[in-house]
Amino acid sequence: MKKTLAALVAVTTIAGSLVVAPAAKAGDGGAVAAGVAGGLIGGALLGGAIAASRPAPVYVAPAPTYVEEAPCRWVRERFWDGYAWRFRRIQVCD
Asked: Cβ neighbours of residue 24 under 8 Å, at least 6 residues apart?
């Protein structure tokens, strides 16, 4: 949800700056440039706030577990099926 909101804000900021830019005149005194700069700075601040709102990932090692050896094991066995030699896995328990 946050990524969608951030993308929507970014698209809105860019679209707003593109709409305002063609309306600029030579004698506007830099008002458009100030508006574009303000939009970029506002977008950077908003993006930084969204990125900082997530907690840092923390790795926690799992507790050690001890597994007993299973009394059974799987072995590969070759057999004749009437047409050709084939292989299958069977379970052998000691």
From this structure: 32
d(C-alpha 37, C-alpha 68), whole Å = 66
3-state secondary structure (DSSP) of residue 3: helix
| Non-local CB neighbours of 13 within 8 Å, separated by 6+ positions | 39, 40, 42, 43
- The residue with greater pLDDT, 4 or 82, is 82
Structure tokens at 14: 């860019």
R_g of the chain, CA atoms, integer Å: 33
- Rounded to the nearest 10°, the torsion over CA 19, 24, 30, 33 is 20
Q: Quote the pTM value.
A: 0.32
What pLDDT digit, counting tens, does each position of 60-74 carry? Answer: 888 988 888 778 889
In terms of Cα–Cα distance, which of 36, 41, 44, 42 is closest to 16?
36
Type of residue found at 64: P
